[in-house]
Amino acid sequence: MLRKLLIGTALGSGLAFAAHAQDVKEVEMLHWWTSGGEAAALNVLKEDLAKQGFAWKDVPVAGGGGDAAMTALKAMVAAGNYPTASQMLGYTVLDYAAAGVMGDLTETAVKEGWDKSVPAALQKFSVYDGKWVAAPVNVHSVNWLWINKAVMDKIGGTEPKTFDEFIALLDKAKAAGVIPLALGGQNWQEATMFDSVVLSTGGPEFYKKAFNDLDEEQLKSDTMKKSFDNLAKLVTYVDPNFSGRDWNLATAMVIKGDALVQVMGDWAKGEFNAAKKTPGTDFLCYRFPGTDGSVVYNSDMFGMFDVPEDRKAAQAALATATLSKSFQSAFNVVKGSVPARTDVPDTDFDACGKKGMADLKAANEGGTLFGSLAQGYGAPPAVANAYKDVVSKFVHGQIKTSDEAVTQLVNAIEDAK
Ligand code: BGC
Fold it and tell me: Residue 308's domain spans which residues?
């Protein structure tokens, strides 16, 4: 209160410039970008802000998928200790906005014309009650295969176009003594893979109704049961040490040729980039078999908190930098994602990035762009967590049959709603 009054007095007496000069030239950011590829991408942002004279206060919370980071953020916010911004996924932004702790970026958004350049699917999660509360950094998609090219050549494999062809390919790898499928046995990774399995098994309409609309008929259908059957098949191709493995270590298994393929969001490409690997030569990116034409997306957003006045200029600078066209290209080339604006040229992107951009455009226009349930864009966090829990219990044998998995999924989602 006293601070506000003082600022009010300064402005009122024509001393606005003096107040401005006291702005804190620092951005404090909470995030879960701790792998090699992620850290490299984050550096692009740090350097951009450093050039403008802003210091960087890093609040990294390791743990892919961000569950640990979100627990840490909750504690900070509860203590009234808001960072300038936090990495967040879809529905989490809306939850914080509803709690009244987000700032208002609308002035920056209007000046920069975000409403024209940011796709509607992202605005749904970055605008709350008519105000911009988050700056989307990228668009990731989860329905990808990442394949070691040398292993693929060795086993004489070709791009699998259907789920059955995928199983045949995994069999070939197994016969050649290579680990067929690199998976990290953590709930968010298993559920991220299951998003693709469901889309492949049931098709686009089914995915949307089940995982975006939470339609109970679909959730308890035979198609969902078949999806769990298919997941069970995939899990038979995983090595025995998969429990608890971090996602980037699973990617490293593919990079090194210890495993043929990983099913993962395109943040995996950031790891190939960091290891100086080239698509087409060292690795291959295909859509998860049977999902061509659809994109299951998530987007990293920088949720912007209602920080004190003297931190607002730094926050606005962060927001402006995040959505600048040049940054959107430079950052996403390194991160493995694609731009959060529709007007960024694909010139600097590699073949997988160009494909990602073209796929996103086509899916957006064709009505086959769907939010990832595992990645916070299908339903609010409580539902997503219930989903991750059921899928993981199934993968680790605590839920023994597909029938039981379907029942538990329906109940858990109902309870969480
Ligand atoms: C984020 C990515 C991140 C990945 C693994 C996802 O939820 O959207 O940016 O690279 O988790 O940490």
Answer: 24-139+298-364
Q: Do the strands 300-304 and 85-89 form a parallel or antiparallel pair, or are they unpaired?
A: antiparallel
Nearest CA to ligand 1 atom 10: 267
Which tens digit of pLDDT belongs to each residue from 185-234?
999 999 999 999 999 999 999 999 999 999 999 999 999 999 999 999 99
In a domain, 307, yes or no: yes
49 CA from centroid of ligand 1 (Å)? 22
* pLDDT for the residue 16: 37
Q: Which atom of ligand 1 is nearest to the CA of 375?
A: 7
How does strand 85-89 pair with strand 134-136? Answer: unpaired
Shared domain for 211 and 284, answered yes or no, is yes
| Protein residues with CB under 6 Å of any ligand 1 atom | 32, 38, 64-66, 89, 140, 247, 267, 298, 300, 375
What distance in angstroms lies between residue 183's CA and the mean position of ligand 1's atoms?
15
What number is the average pLDDT over the span 85-94?
98
Ligand 1, atom 8, lies closest to the CA of: 300
pTM for this prediction: 0.94
Which CATH number characterizes residue 259's domain?
3.40.190.10
H or E stretch at 69: helix 67-78
pLDDT tens for residues 297-339?
999 999 999 999 999 999 999 999 999 999 999 999 999 999 9
d(CA 16, ligand 1 centre) in Å: 41
